[in-house]
Amino acid sequence: MGCNNILRESWAEYVGWELTEAYYAKQNRARPSYSTISGCNNQLWKKTDKREKDNGTYSPLFTDLSDNYNQRDDGVEYPNDMISDVPYSFIHELSRAGNWDNFKEELQRGVGLGYFTQAQHDEFIADYDYWRAHHTLHWW
Description:
By secondary structure, the protein is an all-alpha fold. 48% of the residues lie in helices and 0% in strands. It has one domain. The chain is globular and about 40 Å long. The two termini are 17 Å apart.
């Protein structure tokens, strides 16, 4: 039985991605954000994906706040990820949101902190709101 918590599973994927990228960077073996050795970046996640058990909860939600790769370049079914370089400390705070509404409220603080614009925020949230509206999985 798979876990059905997108916030928790996406956080776990981000941690795996972040730690792996940091390790390889220290080894002078850095890889582009879209091609990680860990595979935890989930750049193939689609907002239109119906495979809830296989793909849905393992999203690039947190990774997209840090990486510099916009999956939308690969097609309109992918998130429009125009946000990058958000500090780990802020992403870690977001991981404690507990549910989607709290996550969105906390993410909004990033605009005031200068991490991204309001337009970038709104576009980022829209893809995940779309996914949430079309799936029955729990977000908390």
